[in-house]
UniProtKB/TrEMBL annotation:
NCBIfam families tied to this protein: PRK09736.1 (NF007277)
EC number: 3.1.21.-
GO molecular function terms attached to this record: endonuclease activity; hydrolase activity
Name of protein: 5-methylcytosine-specific restriction endonuclease system specificity protein McrC
Keyword list, A-Z: Endonuclease, Hydrolase, Nuclease
Amino acid sequence: MIRIQNIYHMLAYAFQILREQGYASCGTEEFENTTDLLSAILAKGVTVQIKRGLGRTYIEETEPLSCLRGKIDVTESIKQQTIITQQLVCTYDEFSVDSYMNRILKTTMELLLRYDIPKARKKELQNLILYFNDVGTIDIYSINWSFRFNRNNQSYQMLMSVCYLIIKGLLQTTADGSVKLMQFLDEQRMCRLYEKFILEYFRKHYPQIKTAASQIGWALDDGISAMLPTMQSDIMLTYRNKTLIIDAKYYGHATQKQYDVNTLHSNNLYQIFTYVKNKAATGGEVSGMLLYAKTDEAIQPNNTYMMSGNKISVKTLDLDCEFSEIANQLNKIADEFLHNSSIGA
């Protein structure tokens, strides 16, 4: 379980722009569901972007013109017989607001208007869409989410991420082939947000700790690494000669049941053990932690194991509480890492 308000806090760590004054009300306002929260963030973000000016890009246009502009398309001019009307087909670049990212913004806002969000929010989105009269829309199933952000379009990075969560994370297909909006982010998207939140929390509040999502090299005897998979950690904390590798897991069930016995997810345990042992081969004190988002199940993992000289702990993070308590839980992990060699004990 997770409180809707805490999703905002998680997003605020994942996207630092949400800490700006324009988004401050999202941290205290009550929301009916996750859709309402994301639509509020999107509305405020679009409002800020409109004040800055909607991003523009050069778009190639081709049309018959009476006055020359750009390059003449002789083939099309002959094909369309535009000479009869004393025109030539010209191809030219138009500096337009009808950019790909603006199309995604408009498409997402129009999508939200079709679903169950408060009337006041719908009215806000309807007013914002008026600024997009010269912007087209796009098929939600064919959007290319691979963007290159630079100094000119950096302000769109968070907006595109929110649009992605709304379109990819909140839509599901019904039996009749139509789509409906889910009230909560699906497990896959929440897992990515959960990882990013924990990483950025430690990075912000514990600058003395080197915090990164680092790759781990294989401890190879002969140096041959062909076809070996990449070992990519979610969060790696490094302080002096100590390393804590955290795998953040957001599942509907924190444990698996086998023959009426609750056990840890075997793949998760194998993975963190592999990460720890290969990292330990480079030296230093290395420990691992599986950090599950707490569920409403009666049995929650809370164990520490000593495995071949390295500690592997399994913990849960309660997200269904005041955010200050979430912070306390994360602070405890970091403080134990800083001051104790017995991580997670």
